[in-house]
Write a structure and sequence with these properties.
Blueprint (H helix, E strand, L loop, with lengths): L2 H4 L5 H9 L4 E5 L3 H10 L3 E4 L3 H4 L11 H13 L5 E5 L9 H13 L5 E3 L7 H9 L4 E6 L5 H4 L9 H17 L3 E5 L3 H10 L3 E5 L7 E4 L1 H4 L17 H17 L12
Parallel strand pairs: 1-2, 1-8, 2-3, 3-4, 4-5, 5-6, 6-7, 7-8
Helix pairs in contact: 3-5, 6-7, 7-9, 9-10
Length: 272
C-alpha cells in the first residue's frame, strides 16, 4: 500500500516520505467546493487554489489581475470541500513582492482566514528571503521555477525556460537556494525534461512538474485544462482526460430544446 493510502491526511511529512519511497505526487488545481469534494474523494494528494483562476474562472487574459480577496474567497470554498488532500493557496501578483512583512502577513491569511495548509509563490533567488521568513512563521511553502506566469511580460511570453546552459544553471541554482530557504517542494513549469530530472535528482525536496517531463516527483495540471472545460488554448503539456466542454454544450443544448418543445419537465420530474 502506498504512503498516501495509509494516512487520512496529506501533510508535508507525507510528501517528504513519498519522495524517499519514490511515490509520485498527484496534484491538480481547484477553485470551488463541488470540484474539490470530487477530487478529494478520488484521492488527489494536493489541491492548488491557483491564481490561474483569473483565466479559467474569472475570464481575465492573464493571472495578473487576481487579488488576495479573490484567492481567499476561492480557497475558503475549496477547503470546505476537502477532508484529506493538502490545500495550497497561490500567492497572487504583488502579494509578496512589496515587502517581506507584507508577504508573511498575506501568506498567513491563507491559513488563518481560508483554512489552507500552505502557500505557493513564484520566483527564484529573488524570493529566497521571503520564502525563508514565511517558512519560519510555520507556513509551508511550495516554490515555483521555470515559466512563472506572473512574470510573463518580463519573460516575453509563455515560453519554455532553461534551454540554454546559463539559463539551466540558474534554475538549478535557484532550486537549491529555495530548498535551503525552507521550501518543502518546488514546481518546475515548462523546463526541458532532462533539466527537470537533474534538479529532481539533486534535491531532497519534491519537484512537481507541469511541462517538466516524467522524472519529476509529481505532476500538476490545471483541472479545467485536463477536464477539457477551458478551450481558449491548450498548452503542449496538457493531456485532456475528458472533453467536458463538448459534453456540457451538448447537455445545455438538449435542455434548451426540451424546454422549448415542452418536453421538460415531464411527469417524472413534476409533482402530481
Amino acid at each position: 500500500m502506498s504512503t498516501q493510502g495509509k494516512l487520512n491526511k496529506i501533510t508535508t511529512a507525507v510528501i517528504r516520505e513519498m519522495k524517499k519511497k519514490k511515490e509520485k505526487v498527484a496534484m491538480l488545481t481547484a477553485y470551488d467546493y463541488g470540484t474539490a469534494a470530487i477530487m478529494d474523494e478520488a484521492g488527489i494528494d494536493i489541491m492548488l487554489v491557483g491564481d490561474s483562476l483569473g483565466m479559467v474562472v474569472l475570464g481575465y487574459e492573464s493571472t495578473l489581475p487576481v487579488t488576495m480577496e479573490d484567492m481567499i474567497h476561492h480557497t475558503k470554498a475549496v477547503c470546505r470541500g476537502t477532508k484529506r488532500a493538502m490545500v495550497l493557496g497561490d500567492m497572487p501578483f504583488m502579494s509578496y513582492q512589496v515587502s517581506v512583512e507584507e508577504a508573511v502577513r498575506n501568506a498567513g491569511r491563507f491559513l488563518q482566514e481560508a483554512g489552507a495548509h500552505g502557500v505557493k509563490l513564484e520566483g527564484g533567488r529573488e524570493v529566497a528571503e521571503v520564502t525563508r521568513r514565511i517558512a519560519s512563521a510555520g507556513i509551508p511553502v511550495m516554490a515555483h521555477l521555470g515559466l512563472t506566469p506572473q512574470s510573463v511580460h518580463q519573460l516575453g511570453g509563455y515560453k519554455v525556460q532553461g534551454k540554454g546552459d546559463a539559463a539551466a544553471k540558474r534554475i538549478m541554482e535557484d532550486a537549491r537556494i529555495l530548498e535551503e530557504a525552507g521550501a518543502f517542494a518546488v514546481v518546475l513549469e515548462c523546463v526541458p525534461a532532462l533539466l527537470a530530472k537533474e534538479i529532481t535528482d539533486s534535491l531532497t525536496i519534491s519537484t512537481i512538474g507541469i511541462g517538466g517531463g516524467v522524472h519529476c516527483d509529481g505532476q500538476v495540471l490545471v483541472v479545467n485544462d485536463m477536464l477539457g472545460i477551458f478551450d481558449r488554448f491548450t498548452p503542449k503539456f496538457v493531456k485532456k482526460y475528458a472533453n467536458m466542454n463538448v459534453q456540457m454544450k451538448a447537455a445545455v443544448t438538449q435542455y434548451i430544446d426540451e424546454v422549448r418543445m415542452g418536453q421538460f419537465p415531464d411527469d417524472a420530474h413534476s409533482f402530481l
